[in-house]
Structures are given as C-alpha cells and as structure tokens.
Amino acid sequence: MKKHNLYLPVLALLFFSACKQSIKPEDLYGKWKYIKLENPNKNPPITEPDWKLKIEQPYIEFSKNNDLVIYWSGQVLSHGKFRIEDNKIQFKETLDSGRTREFPFYVSQLKDNTLIFETNGEDGTRVTAIKK
What is the per-residue burial (b if ≥16 Cβ within 10 Å, else e) of 83-113? Predict the structure, then answer.
C-alpha cells in the first residue's frame, strides 16, 4: 500500500472536524420545551418519565440580551447570562446569594428546531428540547 493512501482518511477526518459549524446566539433565541431529560452517567442511567415532563413543563429560554432562564413547573429554576464558544453554551448562573458560577452546556445537536445539550460529570444531564 502506498504511503499517501494512509494519509487520506486522516486528512478527511481533519477536514470534516474543521467544518463543524459553530452555534450562533440567534440560533438559540426563543423558548425550548424539554421533551427528554436524561442522567446518562448515573449507574444505572436515569430518564425522566414522559408524564413528569408533561406535568412539570420545563423549558429553557434564550433572549437577545444574552439572558438564559430555565423554567420548571412555571417557576424560574435558574437564570443568568450566556455566551457561545464554538459548540458550547457557557452559562453564568446567578445564584440567590447574588454570587455566580459558570459552567458549559455542550451542544451535540442544533438542527430542525431540535436542541440537544448536556453537562458533564456524575450528575450530568442531557436535555432534548424542541423550539416552541
């Protein structure tokens, strides 16, 4: 086998990795209703039942002034500011004490009014949401 044939798959992989589209804030603006909520890193993995999501009606809302608000049962669960870094939503949450903490939401899909994002770690969650 010729040496240049070995490089072709590597070059193709690098090309497609470089072409991965970044998220734009305007792609997120609006309300996104949660349709699936998972804790894939738990042992065993946990998925919230559909009936609970229908009752609790959670959603996340992104606005043009970079506000991010998460609602659960009609109440604000969390709020703060967001910014985009490639395929990450950096969320700077404002806590009740006035202090802040920052963590990423890793976006694995943003297509056809479907958003899938997750946090890392043992307590990490994966959310599938559709645009309202």
Answer: ebeebbbebebeeeeeeeeeeebebeebeee
Q: Where are the alpha helices (DSSP H) in the chain?
A: 3-18, 25-28, 50-56
Q: pTM of this prediction?
A: 0.82
pLDDT for residue 9: 40
Whether 16 maps to a domain, the answer reads: no
Query: Residue 30 to residues 1, 44, 120: CA-CA distances in angstroms?
Result: 53, 33, 24
The pair of structure tokens assigned to 69 is: 């608000």
The one-letter code for the residue type at 103 is: F
40 falls within a domain? yes
For residue 4, the model assigns a pLDDT of 45
Based on the structure, what is the number of domains in the chain?
A: 1
pLDDT at 68 over 90: yes
Strand partners, 2: none
